Amino acid sequence: MRKIFILLKLKAKVANVLIKKRLLLTVIFYFFTTAVIASDQNFQLHGFAAQGLINVNGSNFVNDDGSLSTELTEIGLNASYQLSSSFRLAGQVVHLDGGNRYNDGVRVDYALLDWSAYSNEYWQVNLYVGRYKNYHWLYSSTRDVPFTRPSIILPQSVYFDGFRDIAVGADGVAVKISHSSDDLGYFDFNMSTGASSISDEQTKIILSDFAFGKMKHTYDLQASLYWQPLLSPWRFGIALLDSDFEYNAAETGDVFINANITLQRYMANILYEGERWEFSGEILQERFVFDGFYYEGAHRDTIGQGMFVQSQYKVNQDLTLLLRYERIYVNKDDKKGHDLEDSTQGLVPSYFAYQYDATVGFSCDLAENFRMQFEYHYIKGTARLTPVVLPNPKINNSENWQLWAVQLMYWF
Fewest CB within 10 A of the end CB: N or C in the chain? Predict the structure, then answer.
């Protein structure tokens, strides 16, 4: 009976999401049919739907009561239209429900004009204008589609869900330069500048439930370089990020004041792709500068560090195993969190200064374009729980916690 109840609840969840987004799907379908009539050779449409169950014991990662949840929904459509040999339009709209991880609703992940500015046997230059995708990190360009990720939940040390909508892309300009060398191999250089829009719900997820003002992303500059030696299964990359935010407090009812925030990242990654084995890893050093917010003259300048190492083994054509370990420290000079606890007079426990995560899982292709993923996480520490700036130790009162998740996904 319990299994039947869960299945019925899952079915109702999917139906409810589809009903709420009926108008959105109608608009997209109209766009699709109109474009197909205009030119079916130049238009491409793809989509996906993923629904799962997730259970978290010991934290508010998904919900506040720790109950079994269906808040693991991802529905998306992406399309591209080739205007000419040099110009292409592309976009993706998604509906997400992840509980406390990010706000529930529809968002446009990217909507851009892609200009193939130069191309020959060895060089390719593309310019992207609009809401571009983030191609700088190892999984940043594929995290928005469930079947292209290595796991249901990416390593939070690097791909923190609280910043998901900000990190997926931004409104501005990006350039990608690719070069192939007969001697040295393949190079990809990416640079982008722009800013992301932040909703009121996202402001509360990042800062605090009591933040009633407006958070703005005012500046973002990123660059990355990837190198794959000729005929090698290895790929190496480095990435830089410099980003500014501001918080404008509400005129009434806000317990916080105006603030300026700077986030800077220095990252390196590695990827090995063999016939059956895949190894990957990323390390980062993250500077977080915070002025204001709590009171006039408040200043915080910390350097955090994080990493993950991951292995995937392809048992056969349908079954892949996953093993991963990750760590994140909010302040590299306070890895145990003693200074954090002392500075808040015990209000914020020391385990909010770090987070370790050991993950095992698998993915199984049940049929063509139909997959099931399962994973289990054992976690120590709460550094990557929301809200970020003003944590909630009342709910997150356990240093050790676990989660498991299973998700079914279909794509076309």
Answer: N
Q: Where are the alpha helices (DSSP H) in 208-307?
A: none
Pairing relationship of beta strands 319-329 and 299-314 according to DSSP bridges: antiparallel
| Per-residue b or e along 268-301, where b marks 16 or more CB atoms closer than 10 Å to that residue's CB | ebebeeeeeebbbbbbbebebebbbbeeeeeeee
- Beta-bridged to residue 378, according to DSSP, are 358, 402
Q: Are 308 and 358 in contact (CB under 8 A)?
A: no
Backbone angles phi, psi at 186, to 5 degrees: -120, 135
The Cα–Cα gap between 156 and 403 comes to 13
Query: What tens-digit pLDDT sequence spans the chain (412 residues)?
Result: 444 334 434 444 444 444 444 444 444 444 444 445 445 789 999 999 999 999 999 999 999 988 999 999 999 999 999 999 999 999 999 999 999 998 889 999 999 999 999 999 999 999 999 999 999 999 999 999 999 999 999 999 999 999 998 999 999 999 999 999 999 999 999 999 999 999 998 999 899 888 999 999 999 999 999 999 999 999 999 999 999 999 999 988 898 999 999 999 999 999 999 999 999 999 999 999 999 998 999 999 999 999 999 999 999 999 999 999 999 999 999 999 999 999 999 999 999 999 999 999 999 999 999 999 999 999 999 999 998 888 889 899 999 999 999 999 999 9
Q: Give Cβ neighbours of residue 196 (< 8 Å, ≥ 6 apart).
A: 165, 166, 169, 170, 171, 217, 220
Q: Where are the domains of the chain?
A: 102-411
CA atoms within 13 A on the CB side of 274: 10
| Burial of residue 166 (number of CB atoms within 10 Å: 0-12, 13-18, 19+) | buried
**Cβ count near 216 (within 10 Å):** 16
What CA–CA distance (Å, rounded) separates 276 from 153? Answer: 22
| Preceding amide of 387 cis, omega within 30 | yes
Q: For residue 267, give the nearest of 178, 167, 385, 388 by alpha carbon.
A: 167
**In whole angstroms, what separates CA 170 from the centre of its chain?**
13
CATH of 102-411, one of 1.10.3470, 2.160.10, 2.40.160, 2.30.110: 2.40.160
Question: The tokens 């002025």 sit on which residue?
Answer: 291
Alpha-carbon gap, residue 259 to 256, rounded angstroms? 9
